[in-house]
TrEMBL record:
Origin superkingdom: Bacteria
Molecular function per GO: glycine hydroxymethyltransferase activity; methyltransferase activity; pyridoxal phosphate binding
SUPFAM superfamilies to which the protein is assigned, alphabetical: PLP-dependent transferases (SSF53383)
PANTHER family given in the database record: SERINE HYDROXYMETHYLTRANSFERASE (PTHR11680), SERINE HYDROXYMETHYLTRANSFERASE 1 (PTHR11680:SF35)
Domain Serine hydroxymethyltransferase-like: 3-52
EC numbers: 2.1.2.1
Keywords from the UniProt entry: Methyltransferase, Pyridoxal phosphate, Transferase
A GO BP annotation: methylation
The species this protein was found in: candidate division CPR1 bacterium ADurb.Bin160
Top-rank EC class of the record's enzyme: transferase
GO CC term, one of those recorded: cytosol
Gene: glyA2
Protein name as catalogued: Serine hydroxymethyltransferase 2
Transmembrane parts of this sequence: none
Cofactor(s) of this protein: pyridoxal 5'-phosphate
Length: 52
């Protein structure tokens, strides 16, 4: 089951944040953008190792 199906509100929040990051210019020094490869790795089975 996808996140869109299981929690539409969270899915929409993710979509809104992605749009903000793609279309906006943030001037906050501590805000970093991860590459697509890093995002994919974080949402892989390796994420289960840190869900204590």
């Amino acid at each position: 089951m996808s996140i869109q199906q299981s929690d539409p509100e969270i899915f929409q929040a993710i979509q809104d944040e992605q749009k903000r990051q793609l279309e906006g210019m943030e001037l906050i020094a501590s805000e970093n953008y991860q590459s697509e490869a890093v995002l994919q790795a974080q949402s892989s089975v390796f994420a289960n190792k840190y869900s204590e």
